[in-house]
């Protein structure tokens, strides 16, 4: 019986690369579409963490299913969700796509911005909130509304899974896909 504390076995980037070469694994990327479009492991299917509970087991239950994300945290949660639904032979890519890239293995996707879109959202939102607080204390208390507005936007993004700020940032030239 699988529990929430049971962790799926880890697979190293080298082991995954070998399995992919032999076409002996089903690879699933549980990151968000913008992250997947930016860079993903060739042959990976996209299924964001929020949608993992809708996945159906592969026809051949002996086929290993490897999940990955940026660093391994979300894919570990996805493994737990799938294990609780009866999936067998689950593996989690150790260190996520970061470790895959460090190993020099191939990636597919757009030429990326210097940092991920989600980190850009965090930087911009945090800067706006900090600016609103500083201006609220030093210039006019009305600037506190800026912080409240951005905070409400973050809550809305978290609840709905859509982020208006991410959509705006995705339009910037360095975030536009330029396929390799």
Provide structural commentary:
The chain is α/β, with parallel strands linked by helices and 180 residues long. It contains 7 helices and 5 strands; from the N terminus they run βαβαββαβαααα. The chain has a 5-stranded parallel β-sheet with strand order 1-5-4-2-3. Helix 3 links the parallel strand 4 (65-68) and strand 5 (90-93). Helix 5 (117-138) runs antiparallel to helix 6 (144-160) and helix 5 (117-138) packs across helix 7 (164-170). The longest helix has 22 residues, at 117-138.
Strand order of the largest sheet: 1-5-4-2-3
Gyration radius over CA:
19 Å
Structural class: alpha/beta
- Contiguous low-pLDDT stretches (5 residues minimum) are 1-5
**General shape:** elongated
Distance between the termini: 45 Å
- How would a textbook summarize the main sheet? 5 strands, parallel
Strand content: 5-15%
How many distinct beta strands? 5
Number of helices: 7
Q: Helix proportion of residues, in percent?
A: 40-55%
Oligomeric state of this protein: single chain
Mean pLDDT: 86
SSE pattern: EHEHEEHEHHHH
């Amino acid at each position: 019986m699988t529990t929430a504390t049971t962790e799926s076995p880890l697979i190293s980037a080298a082991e995954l690369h070998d399995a992919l070469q032999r076409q002996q694994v089903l690879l699933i990327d549980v990151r968000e579409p913008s992250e997947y479009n930016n860079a993903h492991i060739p042959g990976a299917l996209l299924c964001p963490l929020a949608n993992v509970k809708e996945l159906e087991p592969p026809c051949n239950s002996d086929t290993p299913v490897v999940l990955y994300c940026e660093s391994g945290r979300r894919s570990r949660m996805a493994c737990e969700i799938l294990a609780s639904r009866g999936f067998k032979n689950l593996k989690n890519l150790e260190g996520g796509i970061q470790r895959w890239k460090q190993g020099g293995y191939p990636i597919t996707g757009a030429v990326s911005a210097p940092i991920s879109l989600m980190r850009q959202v965090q930087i911009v939102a945090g800067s706006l909130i900090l600016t609103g607080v500083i201006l609220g204390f030093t210039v006019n208390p009305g600037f506190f509304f800026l912080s409240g507005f951005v905070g409400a936007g973050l809550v809305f993004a978290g609840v709905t899974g859509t982020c208006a700020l991410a959509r705006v940032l995705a339009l910037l030239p360095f975030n536009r896909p330029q396929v390799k």
